[in-house]
Amino acid sequence: MRKTMLTRLAVVALLTIAISVGCPLGLEAAAGGGATLTMMYPPPRALPPANDPIKAELESKLGVTLRVINPPLEGYLEKINIQVASRDMPDIFTCPWQNDWRQFADEGAIVPLDQYLSGLTNLSKLPKADWDKVTYKGKVYAVPVGGFRNFAGLFVRKDWLDKLGLPIPKTMDEMYTVLKAFTENDPDGNGRPDTYGLTAQTSGVDGSCFQWVFGAHGSMHSSMRSIYAVARDGAGVVDMNLNPANAQALKWLNRLHVEGILDPEWVVNTPDQIYMKLAQGKVGCIWYTWNLPYVLDTRFKLKEVDPEAQWIEIKPPVGPGGASSLGKEQGLVSVIMVSSSCKNPRLALEFLDYIAGEEGKRLVNYGIEKRHYNYINGELVFTDEGKQDWISHYAILKVGFDSDFWTSKYGMYGKILENLALNMPLTADAADGVVTEAKKKYDADLIAYVNEMYCRFITGEEPISNWPNFADTARKRYHADEIRDSVVQALKRTGVVK
């Protein structure tokens, strides 16, 4: 087994894209000079050129030689496991939040950071709640990388609303009225019944394409993993995918299916099919990633095809009990760990502290001032070179929502993301990032079953009256109760539940 793992390590190493960045780091830990810091994380959207000027700037600012390794995203976790097994580890490496990073602490592959964090003022500004999430067995084992609270939205055709004399829907009843009108009242004015009120995509979008419907019924659903809410008495958790309230949400969606309001291809839609349907004016509402209007206007030239077309984001409608949620609040994106192979953990953290501060954050996100960006009348403006994707290659630690960055990059479209990230009602997953042996063993099969049955409920292949049988099967045959109990025990250890 070990021989096989080492062979795979050699193969992966040959495929690895490595960028060496030499630079002196003028921080206290590098006073002796000649220090090297190796970092590993999945490749960003684009790699920097060989003569990377940001690399050179980092070299002049800092006192350490950086070696950045970007294994292919596919197989990244396998790459980590191979290097951990061989103890041939980089100084710093990232791990996606939903994966079991705690195993590396149990194996002694990463070091606790508590003794090295003193005096690092920029890292200390990260939210305490995020630090709590990376505390394991009483010790801090990683630097938390937060993301946006939310990056998806519920979008509608505002011009269709105006044409049909309908207000922006604020309740689920109003939403039904709007979606039905989008389907039956010829919103595109071509005299043909060729539009649908609502469409969706079941793959490629985190969580669930109908999150807002479950949110209106005071619940949640994830098509990717089991998610939980703390019980009202604080003594346990509720498996939200099996929450009886979801049956009412599915009943509402089934009504749309039966009445021909929901695009019948929602189960098989691909991203390109979604964009084409929206660009061709075939659908009036969708829950999708924040940049939907940007992609439609720039890639699909929607304004040239239909100058009146206007997609806007709206708040999720309120359900019969007064609940409203756009979906699950996003947790951490990843964690940054310092390996037990690192000779100077303090130096590794000082580097992270630098890029978490204002000067370092600008350098790794914006590039070099006057070359990649300028401030004109107080506004951030990127140059043509600064708009290239490789500019943020070293930005492995995101701190807060950077309104200047997104507005400068995307103009008015950046404001859409800001609104979705900061102003929407969301629901937290109490077990976000919790990994247990039961979850690792059973959750994939459980979620596959849940997703299949949810589709059958929506399409009417399975009557909603069979919900109790579905939930009982999930709990017993697919081990939902065992998974939930293991999550409760994990949350008790962290104090989330009593």
Could you describe the 3D structure shown?
The protein is an alpha+beta fold and 498 residues long. It folds into two domains: 2-147 and 333-399, 3-Layer(aba) Sandwich (D-Maltodextrin-Binding Protein, domain 2), CATH 3.40.190; 151-328 and 401-432 and 448-472, Periplasmic binding protein-like II (D-Maltodextrin-Binding Protein, domain 2). The protein is 40% helix and 13% strand. It contains 20 helices and 15 strands. It has helices at 2-15, 53-61, 76-86, 102-106, 121-124, 128-133, 158-164, 172-184, 211-216, 245-258, 271-279, 292-298, 302-305, 345-356, 358-366, 403-410, 412-422, 437-459, 467-476, 480-494, and strands at 17-21, 35-40, 64-70, 92-96, 135-136, 139-140, 143-146, 152-157, 228-230, 237-239, 285-289, 311-314, 332-338, 373-376, 379-382. It has a six-stranded mixed sheet. A three-stranded antiparallel sheet has the order 11-8-12. The protein has a two-stranded antiparallel sheet with strand order 5-6. Strand 5 (135-136) and strand 6 (139-140) form a beta hairpin. The longest helix has 23 residues, at 437-459. The model is unreliable at 1-32 (pLDDT under 50).
